[in-house]
Design brief:
By secondary structure, the chain is mainly alpha-helical. The protein is built from 19 helices and no strands. The N and C termini lie close together (about 5 Å).
């Protein structure tokens, strides 16, 4: 459908502007969809009024994106196949971006409308997997070759383990709180508009702050890498390469390309010839260049495509059977060194992403707050339950953001609140839990199918 688009044409630029709007809309929906995870406890315990709570949460989300780095951002971009990310003609994959954002946005808004605390991360990853699957099938490659299952499983593992850790951690912490504290009011739903005792109120506000900031450092990063892909399509000469690379980095990367070409030639997949050619081209250009900013504008998109191709092949080399440990270490080292050349984000992209996430935080929280505060357990949320769930969530999400693992704020917080409900003996509402579980289970196959179908139609 979009095969007529030529790189740099007015039509392509127009479609890329639409993709950028969709990317920002997804980040906005991420804000209002996931805000409830942070503010549910402070609102339902009357520690903060709704409006101050969401404004404060929005500000902390904003700061989390700005200060959180980009490790998570590009963990998701690496799920995209190299031949989609860097097509032969050097053009940006407009159909891929449109399918990706439309799928994730549709699922986000749909689950929010139903009041289900579903994961934006889960939807985004499902959409990325769908693109990989469709691309492999279209080009006649088996799913074991055309899909980066190692990267997909590593991302999914963190998503699957995080709610279990949230449940277990909050359950244990709540039991400890019950053992140490004997104020009955802390373990009962608040009455009328009366806030909890001052120190518990302070803890709840602090944990809300922590979850909001951690959400920004993790979920807020996820769109940055994808927004960068769109911006690179709009202004390839300006943003295709990280022009802040030092002279030493450029020289080191150029010298490493001969080794990279040899490794790819021996252990690469069915795309290894393209990988070897790309490595040789990078070595030639970097060998004649002192600074990345000296590379002519018209050559930068092609160099970026070559870098993506080489990094993709080096990942294949790292996982190849029969490879020696020394070769594996070399491939991994070169791969990691090359990342800084293309995996970056200017400050204004972070600010733009942070503004969309923060603005989204200001609206739409009520539907999911009601589910978390009232419909999850057989009794409304008590102050001690909220504190335990949010403290565990802030710790898990913040740690994942620092280590570069994408986790779901929604899954962690929902798992944590469920753990405290079980720990209190109040039990959980099976109907609500079944609805949430069904949404979690259906998210991956539904978004895989939807994005694959859209990508096929649009491409």
């Amino acid at each position: 459908m979009l095969a007529f688009l030529a790189p740099g044409s007015p039509a392509t630029l127009s479609f890329l502007v639409v993709c950028l709007v969709l990317a920002l809309a997804f980040e906005f929906s991420n804000g209002f969809h996931d805000t409830a995870n942070a503010v549910a406890t402070v609102i339902y315990t009357h520690s903060l009024k709704p409006i101050p709570a969401v404004i404060w949460s929005g500000l902390m989300n904003f700061l989390g994106v700005i200060l959180g780095g980009i490790a998570v951002a590009y963990a998701l971009v690496e799920l995209i196949p190299a031949d989609v990310l860097s097509p032969p003609n050097g053009g940006i994959a407009v159909g891929m971006l449109a399918a990706l954002f439309l799928t994730a946005l549709f699922w986000n808004i749909g689950t929010w409308w139903l009041g289900l605390p579903n994961s934006s991360s889960h939807a985004l990853i499902g959409a990325l997997v769908g693109i990989s699957v469709e691309n492999a099938l279209t080009h006649g490659r088996g799913l074991h070759e055309g899909v980066d299952w190692h990267q997909i499983w590593s991302v999914l593992a963190s998503l699957l383990v995080s709610p279990i850790l949230g449940f277990a951690g909050a359950l244990l912490l709540f039991q400890l709180i019950k053992h140490l504290l004997h104020d009955k009011a802390l373990f009962e739903p608040p009455k009328e508009d009366k806030p909890p005792v001052w120190w518990m109120r302070g803890i709840l506000i602090l944990t809300c702050t922590g979850v909001s900031f951690a959400h920004g450092t993790n979920d807020g990063q996820k769109s940055i890498g994808l927004i960068m892909l769109t911006i690179i399509g709009l202004l390839p000469a300006t943003y295709a390469l990280n022009t802040t690379m030092t002279t030493e980095q450029v020289a080191h990367d150029g010298q490493a390309m001969a080794t990279a070409a040899g490794l790819i030639g021996r252990y690469g997949d069915d795309q290894k010839e393209l990988g070897v050619t790309a490595a040789q081209h990078i070595g030639q250009v970097f060998g004649q260049t002192k600074q990345a900013s000296d590379i002519p504008d018209r050559e930068r998109p092609a160099i970026r495509n070559d870098l993506n191709r080489v990094m993709s092949e080096l990942k294949t080399v790292e996982e190849a059977k029969g490879i020696s440990e020394d070769d594996k270490k070399q491939a991994k080292s070169i791969h990691e060194d090359l990342m800084h050349s293309v995996q970056y984000a200017p400050w204004w992209v972070r600010v733009l992403s942070a503004l969309c996430l923060g603005a989204g935080t200001m609206i739409g929280y009520k539907r999911i707050v009601t589910t978390l505060g009232e419909r999850l357990g057989n009794q409304h949320l008590a102050p001690a339950q909220g504190a335990a769930a949010e403290l565990v969530a802030a710790t898990l999400i913040g740690g994942a953001g620092l280590s570069g693992f994408p986790v779901s704020t929604t899954h962690v917080v929902t798992g944590g609140i469920t753990g405290t409900m079980v720990g209190s003996g109040a039990g959980i509402q099976r109907t609500t839990l079944w609805q949430i579980g069904a949404a979690w289970v259906l998210t991956l196959p539904a978004t895989v199918a939807l994005s694959a179908g859209l990508f096929y139609i649009l491409s």
